[in-house]
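::Encoded backbone::
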Amino acid sequence: MRYKELSKKWKVITTILIVLNALLIILIIVFTLFLSSYREQCAQLRAPLKKDDSLLIGERMKIERSGNESVAVNLYMPENIGNDKLPVVFNIHGGGFVGGDADMLDTQSDRIANEWNTVVVTINYTTADVKSVLYGSEEVRDTVLYFADHADSYHADTTRFTIMGYSAGAYYSAEAMRLLKENDFDIASLVLCYPWTTGLPTKNLSSDCPKTLFVLAGEDSISQKSKSYIEAMKAAGVDVEVIKYDSAVHSFIESNNPEGANDSAEGIESVVNSTQEAIARKAEKMIGEWIN
């Protein structure tokens, strides 16, 4: 039936539906343009954080995955490996879910690989402006499983795997731990530094989760918000330890390295300074002792 042949009532209804459909199309177009622009802005902010290959201390690798894109990682081996099997630390950068880069942990990862006598792997997970947080967590999971499957090639002791994350990276770390448990692979320990825990599921926490260390910064609201997740872990029977540095600020551990100079975040001078650096080195020593 043609529009002009419709009754007045149906003409009104049809007109409303046409207008709503047009508005929906406009909204989709506007959202698509906004998302494209937002992704470009995020990519531009991340770009200065990536180091030239010639300057990178670690070894770049690609972890191939069946049915999914590969994961970019950086590998750090201690200088004096010997014949012993070594623990492995998966070092997960932060950045508010849409920022940061594994290269920001380059100097630190090389340092702790030698000071802790451990293999260190940093992971350039896909940020949340491009893929879901779950997708990024799966990338961390798959990287851990790759090194478990190829343990002999990297002198890795699969019974001493630790995932260590900072801020948003701690969220990815905790989620990766949950996904690994679903794959029947248990890591030895989890280190969550001033973690973003809002939204982290707690229903699957249990006493067989790995021992977990929380490193909190006293001058940091995100650290304070993690208390409910800490209590949920304890209530589930997880072996939890909490260390708080009262004078520390958010991102004090990873930012106080040469790569921190590339961070253009507002107020970065309150993070990158000799006071916070001293606390960061103290925290690193404590974490290394706790892991080992």
In short: Helices lie at 8-46, 106-115, 133-149, 168-182, 221-225, 227-235, 252-255, 274-291. The two ends are 78 Å apart (CA to CA). The first strand starts at residue 59 and ends at 65. Residues 9 and 171 are 54 Å apart (CA to CA).
